[in-house]
Structures are given as C-alpha cells and as structure tokens.
Amino acid sequence: MPRALVTVLALCLSFAFAPVARAQQSDLQSVLQDNQDAVANPSRSTVNEVIDALVASGLPGVAEFLSRWQEREVVVREEDGLFFYVEDDQLIDIATGEAAGPVPDDGIDEVRPNGGVRRELAGALVQFQLSSPDIAERRAALDAISGDMSADQIEPLAASIEDEPSARIAARKQRLLAMLTARFGEDTEARVEAIRQITNGVSVELRGVLNQILTTSDEVSETVPEDVNVARTYVPGEDMSLDAAYSELVERDLAPPRVSDADIYAALTQNIADGAVGGVPVEELSDPARRIDAYEALAAEGTVPGFVGPDDMAAAVDAYSFYAIYDEPDPAVTDAARAALDGVETRVGLSEAADLSLDALSLASIYFLAAIGLAVTFGVMGVINMAHGEFIMMGAYTGYVVQSLVPNYTISIILALPLAFAVTFALGVAMERLVIRWLYHRPLETLLATFGISIALQQLAKNIFGTQARPFTAPDWLAGSMVVSDVISISFVRIAIFVLGLFFLGLLLFILKRTRLGLEVRAVTQNPRMAASMGINSERINMLTFGLGSGIAGIAGVAIGLYAQVTSEMGSNYIVQSFMTVVVGGVGNVWGTLAGATLIGFLQKGIEWFNPSNTLAAQTFMILFIILFIQFRPRGIVALKGRAAGD
Amino acid sequence: MRALPSSVPWFLGILGLVVLAVTVMSEAVGTGLISTSFLKVLGMTLCFCLAALAMDVVWGYCGILSLGHMAFFGLGGYAIGMWLMYARTEIIVAANLAGRAIPPTEAELRDAIGSQIFGVVGASDFPWVWGFAHSLPLQLAMVVVVPGLIALVFGWLAFRSRVTGVYLSILTQAMTLALSLWFFQNDSGLRGNNGLSGLQNIPGFLDAPQAAVALAFFLASALALALGYVFFAWVVSGKMGSVIRAIRDDEARVRFLGYPVEGFKLFVFTLTAIVAGIAGALYYPQAGIINPGEMAPIASIYLAVWVAIGGRGRLYGAVIGAAFVSLVSTWFTGGGAPDIDLGFYRVDWVDWWLVLLGVSFVLVTIFAPKGLGGLVDLWTERRGRDRHGADLGPDQGALREREAGE
Amino acid sequence: MKTTFQTAGAVAALSMGLALPAAAQDAECPIKVGVLHSLSGTMAISETTLKDTILMLVEQQNEAGGLLGCDLEAVVVDPASDWPRFAELARQLLTVDEVDVIFGNWTSVSRKSVLPVIEELNGLLFYPVQYEGEESSKNVFYTGAAPNQQAIPAVDYFLEELGVEKFALLGTDYVYPRTTNNILESYLKDNGIADEDIFVNYTPFGHSDWSTIVSDVIALGEDGSMVGVISTINGDANVGFYTELAAQGVSADDIPVVAFSVGEEELSGLDTSNLEGHLAAWNYFQSADTPENEEFISAWHEFIGDDSRVTNDPMEAHYIGFNMWVNAVEEAGTTDVDAVREAMWGQEFPNLTGGTAVMNPNHHLSKPVLIGEIRADGQFDIISETEEVPGDAWTDYLPESAVLKSDWQELDCGMYNTETETCVQQTSNY
Asked: Region annotation Disordered: residue ranges (chain B) (predicted)?
C-alpha cells in the first residue's frame, strides 16, 4: 500500500514538473539535441558546427558546457540521448545545474572528445576565458591562442589586457598580441614594429610565428613577374640539379616527360611483331643497348614519343625561371621577419649545441657512475668482474623492492640508496671470499668465473622478478626537468645522476688518497707481498676494496633504474661500455675513468648529431673508435707511469 | 711428417663410430631411428665442436682469451647464407621473368632479386656487401677471407701495440659487440634483425628431401671436424707448438729468445678465426636461419665456457666440452629434464638451467681447471708430477708439464 | 632428446617427410594441436600468455565435446626465444609428434625461421601477432594485424582527428618498425606531408637515453605545426621514452604518441602516470564492452586463476584463429591440411569487440581497428573504432608491393604480380 502511494505521488510529481523541465531544456539541452550525434560522438570535422551553434545561441551556460565537455565531464543517457554533467555520483541537469537523480549503473555513456576536438574546444573557449577570474583558465586560453593563432583573436585579446590583474599574464598577453599582430596585422609598420618587439629568445612559439610569416611556394614561369614578393631564385645546375628542374617542368606540363626504362619496356612489349621489335629480334632485348636501338627505331616510325636528350632538357630549363615566392605579399614584413629569424636561428644553433653538450655531459655521468665501481675492482685491484653489470641490476631491483614496500617515493629513494649499497657490498664481499680469492693469479679465469656468476644472477633475477621491466619511479621533485629555454632543458634525474657521480668521484678520491684504508689499498695494489710484510692484512683489504666497488655499482643501479627501466638484462647493457670507459680512461686511476666517461659520452652524442636517425650506428662507430683508440694509447688517456704502472 | 699426439687415432676412431651409427640410424638411410630434426642438432653440434677446437688452440695453447670467435663463426655463416639466399631467389625470379614477352636485362634480374630479398625491409637496391653473392666460388672464398681479414687486421693492431691478457679479451669483446651491432642495423644491408633465412634449402637440390640434406651436412661437418682435429693436432705439436705454448706461459721470455711473438700470435689468431668461419658456414645451412643475435658477445663467451668445461689445453677436451654442454643445454631448455618438486618449490629446469650452468661453471673454474677432459687422465693414469708444493710457473693455469708428456 | 628417440621409431614409416603428416589422419584420435611459443628467454613474458590461451581454448573445446568425435591434445614445446630452434621444433612437431595444426610464434624472425619447414612439410600455422605484412604463405593463417589494419588507420586518425601536420616515426631497429615506417612514409607523402616534415629515428632494443631524441621531436614543432609521434618502439624501451616525454613537459595534448606495440600486457605492472592520454592502435582492447568479451575475460581469469591478469590483442587473434580452425575442421570433416585450408577461406567468427571477423583468401583476417587512450589503470579507453578492414598481405603504398596480391582461392598464389599476371612464387619469401 505505501509503495503504491509513493508511485502515484511520483507520477503526479513528474507530470507536474515535466512541462517545466522541458521549458528549461529548450535552451541549452535543445541546442545540444539538435546536434545530438555530433556532441555524443564528437569529431574534429563536425565539432565546429556545434560550437558555432552553441555560441550563436548566446545562452548563459555555453562556456561552462564547453569547458566541461572539454574536461570529459559530460555524459549521455542512452535511452533518450539527453546530456548531463556528473558530480558526486549525481546526474546534474545541464541547463539548471540541479541534481537529476543518482547515476544509474547502466545506460550512461561518457562523452569522450579526442585530443583534436579538445583543441577546437579550447580555441572556442578563449573568448570566455580571457577575462575569467580563474587564473588557470586565463592561462589555458593563452595556451590555446599560442597553439592555434588566428586573426579574429586580436580583438578579444587586446580588449582583455587592460583589466588583467596579474603582471606576468599581462606581459604574456602583450607578447601574444604582438605575435598576432605580426602575423595578421593590417598595417605594415605596426607589423614590422611587432616583429621587432617579439624578437628575443628562442621559443618554439616565436619561431612558429616567424616561420608562418615566411612560408614560401616554388614557382616556375618564363619570366619572374613584377608584382610578387620573391623569396629567392634558383639557378638550375647550381641551386637545383638539372634533373630536378626538368622534372618540375614536366610536372607543370611545360615539357614532355623523359622516357624511363619502364616506358621503354612497356613500349617494346606493345610493339612486338613477328618476334622482333623495331627490327631487333626479341631474344636480343636482354641487352639494354639493343633495347634502346629498338626503341629509337619505334620512335623514328613515330609510334612512340622520342627520347628527351640532355640538350633538349637544358634548352627547356633555360627557357624558364625557377623561384620561390613568399605567401605574404608585403616585402617589408618578410624582410623584417627574415632578419629576425636569422638572428633567432643563430641563437637556436648555439642553444642546440649547449643542449647537446648537456646531454653528452649527462650521458658521460651515467657511464661514469656505471663504471666507477669497476674502476675500483678492475682499475685498482686488477680483477675482471663480469658480474659488475649484475650488481648494477641488483641495486636497481633493491630500489624496486624498497619502493613496493614503502609507498612514499622520496623516503623510498632515501632508503634505497644505502640499502642497495649494503646488498651489493655484501654480495661483493661474499663473491670475493668464495670465488675471486682463489683466482688472483689467474686473471683470465676470473673473467670466466665471474661471467658464470653473471649468468646465474641474471637468471635468478628473471626467476624472481620476471622478464618484464619493473617500475622504479622518481619522486615528484625529480620528475620534471630544468628548462633554461625551449631548446635547452635537462631532466632533474639526470642532474641528480650527475651530482651523484661527482659525489662518488670525490668520495673515492678521498678514500684512496686521504684515509688509512686508501693507503693500504694502494700499497696492496702495487706490491702485495711488500704490503704484507709491512703488516697490512692484504686479504682484508682486497675484500673491502671489492665490496666498495660492488657497493658503488649498487648505488649506480638505483640511479640508472630511476632514469631508465629495471630489467634483468640492464646490467649487460652497461658492462661492455663500462669496461671500455675504464680501459679508455686508463686503468688504475679514478681520474682516468672520468676522462674515459667524458670522452665516450661526448663522442657518442657527437656521432648521433651527425646521423640523428640511427642511434645504433652511433654506438657501432663509437666502439670502433674506442678499439682504434686503444691501439694507439694502450694504457688509456691517463696512463700511470713508473712503478705504479706495475704489470 | 712429425708424429701426431696419441689422441688423434683415438679421436678419429670414436668420431668415425659415432658418424657410422648416426648414419645408419638416420631417416635418409631408411631406419629412421633418429629424426631429421635431431640429426640436424647433431650436425650443428659437430660444427660447434670445430669452433671449440679453434677456440682451444687460440686460448688453451696460445693463451689469447678471444671473446670474438663466435663472431667469426657468424661471419662464415653470413658469407655462405648470402649466396644461398641469392641463388635460391635467382631461380625463382628467373623463372618468373622468363614468362614475360621480352627477356630481362641483367639489371632487371638483379633488381627483381633485390626486391625479393629486401622487400621485407622495404628496400630493393643491393648493398655493396652483396657484391659477390651471385657467385658460389667467390662467396665460398668470402667464408675464409672475411673472418681471416678481420682477424688479421684486428690482431695486427692489437698485438702490435702489445695489448695482452684481460685487456685483449675486452678488446675482442668490443670488436664482437661492434660487429653484431653493425649486423643489427638494417642500413648495413644484411636484413637486420631478421637476418638470412631459408638457408636449409640448397639451390640445385631444392627438390632433395631434408632428411638427405641433413645427412649430407652431418657428414660434411664430421669430415670438417676430423680434418680440423688432425690439422690443429699438427699445428700444436712439434716445434711450433712448443713456441705457441711458450708464448702462453711467458711471452716476454719467448720474445727475448728471439722469436717473433707477434707473428706467431697473429698466425694462430687468424688461422683459428678462419676455421671458426668454416664451422659457421657448415652450421647455418643446418640451422636454416642466421641473425645478428648469433654474433652477440655472449655467444663467444659461451664458446670459452665450453672449452673451459671440456678442459682447455687439450684438443679432445674442447670437443667434449662443446658437445656435452650444448647437448645438455638443449636437453634442459627443451624441457627434457624432469622437474624437481621440492615440496615448497618446484624447480623448473627451463628457468633454472642457466643458474645451474653458471654455478657449475664457477665450480669447474675453481676446483677442476682441467675440466671434463681431466677425466681422461684418470683412465690413462697421467697426473701432474708431485712438485712438493713448488710453484708451477708464472701462470698457475699453465699445463706445460702434462702437455710435454703428450 | 629422450622423447625424440622414443618416438622416432614411429616416424620411420613416414620417411623423409615426403608423406604429408596430416594426410592419413582423418579419424586418428586424439587430434593434436602444436603450441610453438617461447616459454623461456626474452620473449617468454609475451608468449607464455599465448600458450596458456591455446591451452584454455583446447580445454574449452574438449569440454564442448571435442572435435570430429576426438579429444584435442595440446603438444607444447619451448623454443626458448632461439630462432633456429623454432625451425628445429617445428620440424619435430610435424614429423615426430605429427600435430595437425600449430599455433605459435611472436617475432617476425621466428616466423621466417619456421616458414620453410612448415611449407616443406605442408603444415598449418596460425600466427597471432601484428606484423609488417609483405608475406603470404600457403600454410600460414595470419590472425594478427597487417599494417593496413593498425598503422594506416592510426595515421588517418592523426591526420583527420588530431590535425597532425608533422610526423616523428620512432622505432626500434628491426624489421617490423622498418617496414611499417617505410609504408607510413610513403602513405604520408601520398597525403601531402612533405619529406622534411617526417622525422624517422631508429634505436636499439632496450634503449634508455631518450633525451636528445625527444628534444628533436619537440624541435619539429618550431614552425608552429602540430607534431605527432608514431611509435613502433618495442618493449622496455617504451618506459624510458614516455618518462623522458613527461620529464620534458610534453603531454599527450601537445604531442600525441600512438604506439603499435604497447598493449595491456606491456602496461600491466608499470607506472602508467606518464603514459596517460597517449594512444595505441590495436584490433582488440580488454575494455571492449561486449558480452563475448566479458565471457572470454572471465573464462581466462578462471583458467589462469588470477583475476588481475589482462587480456590483449594477440590473445583475441588466437581465439579467433582457433575457433575458425575448429569450424573449418568440422566443415571439412577431416584435419587434412589441404582440406582444412580450403575450408578456412571465408570462415566467419564473431570478434570479441563486436562485428564479425572473416578469413580472406589471402590468409589474412578482416577485423575492425580500434584506437584507445591509455588510462591510469593500464587499460584503454576506446575512442575510435572502424568498420572491418580486410588485411592486406602486400601493401598498396610501396611501389614494389602495390602490384602484388595474394589469393590462394582463385589464383593459388601468395605473390601474384597483377601487372605481368604471373605468380612470382608459390612458396613464401622467407
């Protein structure tokens, strides 16, 4: 009984409110319903019609709707195709902003505009957002203008500058206005002045504006017309090859096409008669010269078009001028823009060189960090440790394990660094005690035994952690990058690796040169027997040195895991490079490792710069270079002299 | 002719028996007790044995731990593979072009072959490295010339500047890495990561059943191994063998005695590289495919592992090591070994085989430097002389004494 | 080895592989299904899932009463990501185990390795992974996407929907990216994108130093054009790439990235915050909202005993391939390879994403192409879905291949030159 009553009441209510609801929807909702499909399944090609219809309606909720549509907060109800907002699991009526009942489990689809549509929406929102009280919205509007400039933005932007409360945003608006004026302004002088104003810095935005003003198109005609803004003229044979010039003419139907081998083949096959073409028997046509004979015979008969010889080509090309014209007709503007762009490009070139140097420095510090542990074990102790890469891997996995236990990224990284050191230190000591100790007199076998450990550790890591890459995420304060300009930037992780590398360089130098342990290490390295007679426990020293080298590899693993990926094979990616670094730099010397890492880092980036499309080739050439380098400086860059050189 | 070590007749006898048994059991002869796929595995193992022999000579006898001999093996494989691909494609293309109204020019034929071979990687021009691919004799010469020349140039540079010991090992590893990276690039014109495939189809014998082809290659590999064994036994015996071993044990002393150490090392390095190349040329037509992964540094390290486990410094040791480890490895990774249930954990050998290999390798290095070949000593009752604790010599791995008795 | 010896005797009668392994097996029970996926080595992570998929499908089929009155039996081998071993084991499956069909392979190089063996012994292989095309073998059915079923629609989406004007084609240096990028370059030029507006770069497997390359991509936008990245970057290297993009402050709105090798399996267990909003193109996403998909996912979870395991595109390819094979065998009334192959042409089976997949006479499927946006939870929001696109064995966008076509039904040729009207070769171009 009560339930029935409720139902009746609900019915009455819905009847009572229905006309009201419909009346309210007749504004925004009905405009949307007119374009139902284009709103529910938006596409870049259809969205502009909807936007125009909405803006034309002049309704108050349009800006909010566009913004929410862009943010993907609009849903559509399947049964009737009506649109709603969603807040706190409640459907919100688009027109009234009132709750329209809870979100049902089924029958509601999100409207998902794609990136292209969202950009169009951002463009449409500009006019609403330029003077919005929300600073984030004003920024979004400026970004939208910057991303897609058009002439009709000048007026609203200019109008919004005066009341802009934030000085920074006002300055940005001024600059954008100048850019818009430079591109779309009416008045030559104003445009030249605007170009002068904006020409500082190297931003992508600025280059975009200048390049857009300077777009050209290639033209060909018998004489260069007077009334066009010529960007440059081409002299065939110098600026462009004769072939290219002639093909240009052919494309514009100004000259007959050349006869290609395929044309000859086609012509010959079509004109076979009695086992011969043009008097040449078919079986002789496997000779290219005979094919030409046959074709010329056909040409003489007039059945096929004749050859275009070099002289014909030269004559045809001579008869025409080849030039490029600016799409912008005003030469004063293009001259100003050209001069501005030349200046910008010089600065960009310098910045690119600086950026590349930064990248090289960063790569060098990664190589250094990966190799410095090896510089201790191989360089100082003379032990070849092929499992060094696996220590790096273990360090990275330690970081991963710590992070999966401690959710706070900052704390986990602070914990991971000493822990990785401890784990790999212990492992290194164990390995020295169990294996390497027995093989000090057999260096080649040390190499093989440690390789055995390397494959065993690698497979163990695979068995424990799987073959897939594991995430090891940098905390937020390390996530971004330091941006000097649009060209020069470097990520904070790389800076951190650089700092870490410097730190370990200092630490190692300190330990080796300024502590008792370092003194003993150097003594044991140079002459173990003499050191032993002086009361140095060389076994203990070897153990500690090896542990130290391995521990540093573990920390390097944490750092490398942060910027790249943690996999069981990450160690083997670094092992050969690390040995190269140590050998190139000069064995037995930490400075040598630094020099080696710097050389390899800069060399690799340099080679990449020559051939940016093929990173693999850069690596190949780098290794070849190193092999050659070692032939001529077998002791590396920083070679030890005198007794320290030992052997 | 000087006397060869006593192991030669034994080795040839055992190899002959194995070959005879396998041939009788093969499908081509009719009994079919050994399937064609397993026959191919056996043939390939013999090629590994030949490469291990070469490795043993350069490492076990001359003391150069080369981590690049599998790269030479791969180079030999690529050399023969290029001809196999070219010739097979030529037959197909020529038959197709012959159907056209006008006979093809040589350039057309070449272009068509090119687009067949490189169409997969979106190119059709022949890179310069394929310059000799059309000719079997030239390409067979490449099997020898390319590894030989690379070894000669590399060795000359390295030995000339007196790079020795672990430095040399690392340098050879760098060379291997550079080579495999170069082969990996599609721009190098060797089909990049896909490598050369379909090598088991031998032009001229396209209709021959694979069972027969496999047996032919098995016999050829066995013959090559036998010849290689005799040849290397000859090289390492006699006076030259003494000099080579002397270089291993104390290079400086040999140099002071007036021997051209660099010349000897270069000779051994180049010779073994060539033999490795020949082994590769026999291996890849049986494997059917070669790609740059086969030349990665790790492959060369495995070669050293085989020799070490087999027992270096004795030729049969290398053969035993290569045959044993590669066959056992196939057995384990192929899921042939039964899993061990520990109750709380199930040891699946597919996952744990490499751990076992790594650990046993460490153990062999420390505790049994003579390797599996040392077992033969138990039988022949040859042991090192008791030196009452005195040093064996400058290199504790030196095996001079026992070798002097061979 | 041991098994080889034991069973080798049985093969004796079948000497030299001349007799077709499947020829005399019409009623021989059980029907054997070979599974040739790497269970160890570098490819194990991807391929083990596919092995499990086939085992699940076999189990389901047996529960449903088997096939031709026989039980199905899966024969699983492990080629250990070792390419020559694929050929070896394919030979073993066909001659020693005498399987009736093989489901297997992931990488192109492994497929090229088994092709000669499958063709020599007249076997039947179902290959479930998106690949570079330019191939059509008589004995292989390609249930993954050809470039025109993944790459071309994705580029269309970039051109039409996102208004991208400059393209960076970044890939790992191996055959799939090389061929796909060649096709795309030529397609983009046909669509009026200038040569200098296309930036191509190849990096090694597992590459981690992305800083310079990302800078180069950003620099493409210096003339004010919209830049988009088409990524054929493989595996682990993706982590470093997306991290570097995020570090340099590039969001999916600034420079969208569409990837062809990043799916649910690759994303599972990764920190996806840097990837959110970027795109991927596949023929299947786990998030597809259909009853068939729901059923498939729950069956998968039940079979594997882990509700967190994802499903992905190659799994759907095996699902379609396996069911089509079952139907074809029933239609043919035999497992004989030639009969089954003929019955396969024109087979229809419902996709998990809706619509119907059709096996074309060129041995490629007609499937819809989906574009998804990566969500924070490692799943995809499907934002675009096309009609069924027939897979193209030979691309129309490279001059050498444009003249080629594959039609096993009418022409009995996988490489037919339409210009000269001759069959270039019956075997495939391995």
From this structure: 387-406
Distance from CA of B291 to the nearest CA of A (A): 16
For residue C369, CA distances in Å to B237, C141, C391 come to 69, 19, 11
Q: Which of C364, C340, C361, C346 is nearest to C31 (CA)?
A: C340
CB C261 within 8 Å of CB C358: no
Domain that holds residue C210: 151-259
Asked whether the beta carbons of residue A614 and residue B185 sit closer than 8 angstroms, the reply is yes
C142 lies in the same domain as C46 = yes
CB contact under 8 A, A204 and C219: yes
Contact in structure between A386 and A450 (CB atoms under 8 Å):
yes
Q: If pLDDT is split at 50, 70 and 90, which confidence band does C56 have? A: very high
Q: Which of the 8 DSSP states describes residue A632?
A: H
CA distance A639 to chain B (A): 14
Strand A99-102 and strand B289-290: pairing? Answer: unpaired
In total, how many domains does chain C have? 2
- Cβ-based neighbour number of residue A301 at 10 Å: 10
CB contact under 8 A, A208 and C221: yes
User: Quick check: is C390 in a domain?
Assistant: no
User: How much is the ipTM here?
Assistant: 0.85
C164-197 burial code (b ≥16 CB/10 A, e <16): bbbbbbbbbbbbbbbbbbbbbbbbbeeeebeeeb
The hierarchical CATH code for the domain A354-645 is 1.10.3470
Partners of residue C140 on adjacent β-strands = C125
Residue C350's identity, in one-letter code, is P
What is the percent of chain B where pLDDT is above 70? Answer: 90
Do C9 and C78 fall into the same domain? yes
pLDDT level of residue A275 (50, 70, 90 thresholds)? confident
* C316 and C247 Cβ atoms separated by less than 8 Å: no
The answer to whether the CB atoms of B182 and A631 lie below 8 A apart is: no
- Cα A389 to Cα B381: distance, rounded to the nearest angstrom: 42
Give the number of domains in chain B: 1
Q: Which residue of A has its CA nearest to C238?
A: A565
Range of B79's domain? 7-384+397-405
pTM of the complete model: 0.86
Instruction: Determine the Cα angle at A41 with ends A38 and A42, to 5°.
Output: 65
Residue B391 resides in a domain: no
- Asked if C209's CB is within 8 angstroms of A366's CB, the reply is yes
Q: Is the domain of C113 the same as that of C9?
A: yes
Q: What is the pLDDT of residue B81?
A: 95
What average pLDDT score do residues A459-463 get?
88
Give the gap in angstroms from C-alpha A488 to the nearest C-alpha of chain C.
9
CA distance A484 to chain C (A): 11
| Residue keyed to tokens 């072939």 | A243
Contact B27 C112 (CB under 8 A): no
Q: Nearest CA to B290 among B55, B3, B83? A: B83
Q: How far is CA A192 from the centre of its chain?
A: 34
What six digits make up the tokens of A427?
Answer: 């492992």
Q: Same domain for C131 and C17?
A: yes
What torsion do the CA atoms of B53, B59, B60, B62 make, to the nearest 10 degrees? 110
CB neighbour burial string for C402-430, b if at least 16 within 10 angstroms, e if fewer: eebbbbbeebebbbbbeeeebbbbebbbb
Distance CA A243, CA C226 (A): 33
> Touching C: which chains, 3+ CB pairs < 8 A?
A, B
Per residue in B367-378, pLDDT (tens digit) is 887 888 877 777
Could you write out the DSSP letters of every residue in A252-297?
Answer: TTSSPPPPPHHHHHHHHHHT-BTTEETTEEGGGGGSHHHHHHHHHH
pLDDT in tens, C158-176: 999 888 999 999 998 888 8
Nearest CB among C1, C87, C425 relative to B288 is that of C87
Of C77, C57, C78, C73, whose CA–CA distance to C303 is shortest?
A: C57
